[in-house]
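Milestone 3.1: sequence recovery, worked example.
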């Protein structure tokens, strides 16, 4: 084995250890953020690639990105006592979407990270979005709403279809959520924004 390959493999081992620590921190951050809301876990899904292949799927036929499920992922929570479909007024969905690298972009072909701009010029973000039913809505939270509808372009949006659905969104740079104190501060800020647009919400 050449010294060059040996050094590369050392860096790979370091990278995997770092990724483990990063993903462990992400899971902890998401969990702590959600604890500030009276909610229950509902769903999680990769957002820019397909889920990790099952054992019967040939990995060589899939994008390598499919094996990095926490690279960009959404974690969904619903209000306590809420259901996946057939929502009563007052039910809501909290979405916490991780974007590890804002430079990721695909035109349909598998992106090559060697073509990305420098990592120093990109961001790692957590997009928090709060979907609220002002009227009874029959749509499924994941398939009919989260997967189908766009986030607000700004902070708040009222959807024409399904009627009665509104959404509040805020983006956080991950460094704003470095520790528990900052996470709580961020959730309080997000709640204030939600209340400014949905004053009838009752925590």
């Amino acid at each position: 084995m050449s010294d060059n390959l040996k050094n590369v493999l050392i860096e790979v081992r370091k990278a995997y250890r770092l990724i483990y620590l990063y993903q462990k921190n992400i899971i902890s951050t998401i969990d702590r953020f959600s604890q500030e809301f009276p909610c229950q876990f509902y769903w999680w899904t990769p957002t820019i690639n397909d889920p990790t292949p099952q054992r019967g799927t040939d990995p060589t036929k899939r994008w390598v990105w499919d094996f990095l499920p926490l690279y960009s992922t959404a974690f969904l929570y619903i209000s306590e006592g809420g259901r996946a479909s057939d929502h009563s007024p007052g039910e809501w969905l909290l979405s916490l979407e991780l974007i590890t690298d804002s430079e990721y972009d695909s035109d349909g072909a598998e992106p090559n990270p060697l073509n990305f701009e420098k990592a120093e010029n990109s961001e790692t973000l957590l997009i928090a979005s709060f979907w609220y039913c002002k009227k009874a809505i029959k749509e499924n939270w994941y398939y009919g709403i989260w997967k189908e509808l766009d986030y607000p372009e700004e902070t708040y949006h009222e959807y024409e279809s399904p009627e009665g659905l509104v959404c509040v969104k805020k983006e956080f740079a991950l460094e704003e959520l470095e520790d528990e104190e900052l996470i709580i501060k961020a959730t309080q800020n997000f709640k204030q924004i939600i209340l400014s647009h949905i004053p009838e919400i009752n925590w």
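The chain has one domain: 32-104+112-197. The mean pLDDT is 95.
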